[in-house]
Design a protein that fits this description.
about 475 residues; 15 helices; 19 strands; about 30% helix; globular
């Protein structure tokens, strides 16, 4: 009898090609590309005279440097010369090597971690890589998905494999139910705050429990997306009926008898009873509150009714120094309430929170209300298809009427590699995944939160929860 195995063990074992000196050569099922980390990889292939090993296993998107307006002009309409060169290089390289590419302006295009699942390219049991740290998003489907470096991008293109060291198994079990106005983003920030930005280092996290099973696929993607911010190599959720319902009839998903066979195979991926985990963590969903970051890494968070901590009260010298620097950079006072901090900008978007459910939540909160006069607020859909669906449902009209700027898809302000940036000293409520110094613009101050809190904060003009908003509707 074979030993009980975890979901991670099963995927790893199924993709192991060879082992050597403590490393495993893993076969890769899906390789996602974008314009920033691929040019050097393609240049290396060309210099060595190599072809792409399995071009049908690769999908390319333009997302990091694209402007979020006037995309119909294509790369030629991009003002920034470096960005334009990256976009043009991706188009040329994908043509040369026979890789499917959804370029800027293609309605199927958008953020790589939104489009892969949307197209049905991300499926249970797969290994998925991308030259982007938030590739962990795709683990929501029960896929082993992780970010890789540029040299590794070239290796995967050339061989459809990658050398990796096996991670340890960690299970995070979440019991109970999330309260109203508490979302997957809050759960993720709560976990990061509890275990720290390196608390899961060396591990792949499998999320389990009643609260996880109750999450929609889009919420699961948000949670797995942020696994990397806990130091984990990847995050995983076992596929179930929710997964299959999301995938059914998507473009790249099999149909008919092949679909039935795939579901039967995917159902066998769940961790076996008695499978051993190297670490276990547990919490009750009822303990999770709407969360807001106060500092410059995602672990520096408090509940919406919390206060900025006093660094002097921290015993660990490293944590105390980090908190002192964060408080100074963010322009906050120790002991000050987080709620009520005046905002200049609000950004709803990113690969963490730019899907249709996120936009529906925001629209429901701002319906009939207006963004505070001193706040510039923007919504950036995660893909062209998300944008189309939102417009078909009238979500864009609700957001526009409230005073939000309705943009075109891309990473936008989250990564700050495009025109959407904060100015020095501007304070922003953002649904992004990272908030380190200068991330969204030099000198910009970013508070991470859910779409619900970001929408409420836009109306209030300061950091606020939905139940704190002034009643401006009618």
């Amino acid at each position: 009898m074979t030993r009980p195995r975890t979901l991670y063990d099963k995927i790893w074992d199924a993709h192991a090609v060879a082992e050597d000196d403590g490393e495993t050569l893993l076969y890769i099922d899906l390789h996602l590309l974008h314009e920033v980390t691929s040019p050097q990889a393609f240049a290396g292939l060309a210099a060595a005279g190599r072809a792409v090993r399995r071009p049908e296993r690769v999908l390319a998107l333009s997302d990091h440097v694209v402007p979020t307006a006037d995309q119909m002009h294509g790369p030629a309409g991009v003002d920034d010369a470096d960005a334009r060169a990256q976009l043009e290089a991706l188009a040329a390289n994908t043509r040369r090597f026979g890789i499917e590419n959804f370029p800027m302006g293609d309605p199927r295009g958008g953020i790589v971690h939104v489009v892969g699942p949307e197209q049905g390219r991300s499926q249970p049991g797969m290994t998925i890589v991308c030259g982007d740290s938030h590739t962990s998003t795709h683990g929501a489907f029960g896929a082993l998905a992780f970010g890789i470096g540029t040299s590794e991008v070239e290796h995967v293109l050339a061989t459809q494999t990658i050398r990796q060291r096996r991670s340890r198994n960690m299970r995070v079990t979440v019991a109970g139910k999330l309260a109203p106005h508490v979302h997957a983003k809050d759960l993720a920030l709560h976990l990061i705050g509890a275990i720290g930005v390196d608390g899961a280092a060396g591990h792949v996290i499998e999320y389990a429990g009643e609260a996880i099973r109750a999450l929609s696929m889009e919420a699961r993607m948000t949670l797995c997306n942020l696994s990397i911010e806990m130091g984990a190599r990847a995050g995983l959720i076992a596929p179930d009926a929710t997964t299959f319902a999301y995938l059914a009839r998507r473009p790249a998903v099999p149909s008919g008898a092949a679909w039935e066979a795939a579901v039967a195979r995917w159902n066998r991926l769940a961790s076996d009873a008695g499978a051993a985990f190297d670490r276990e963590a547990a919490l009750n969903a009822s303990d999770v509150r709407p969360m807001v970051s106060w500092g410059t890494d995602p672990s520096q968070v408090v509940a919406i009714d919390g206060r900025v901590p006093d660094p002097a009260m921290l015993e660990n010298p490293k944590h105390r120094a980090a908190a002192e620097r964060a408080v100074a950079y963010m322009g906050l006072s120790p002991g000050a309430p987080v709620a009520g901090q005046r905002l200049d900008r609000v950004f709803i978007g990113s690969c963490t929170n730019s899907r249709i459910e996120d936009l529906r939540v925001a629209a429901d909160i701002v319906r009939g209300r207006r963004v505070a006069p001193h706040v510039r607020a923007m919504v950036v859909p995660g893909s062209g298809l998300v944008k189309r669906q939102a417009e078909a449902e009238g979500i864009d009209a609700v957001l526009r009427d409230a005073g939000f700027d309705w943009r075109e898809p891309g990473c936008s302000m989250c990564v700050g590699m495009n025109a959407d940036r904060l100015q020095v000293g501007e304070r922003c409520a953002a649904t992004s995944n990272r908030n380190f110094e200068n991330r969204q613009g030099r000198g910009g101050r970013t508070h991470l939160m859910s779409p619900a809190l970001a929408a409420a904060s836009a109306i209030a003009g300061c950091i606020a929860a939905p139940d704190m908003m002034p009643d401006l509707g009618g």
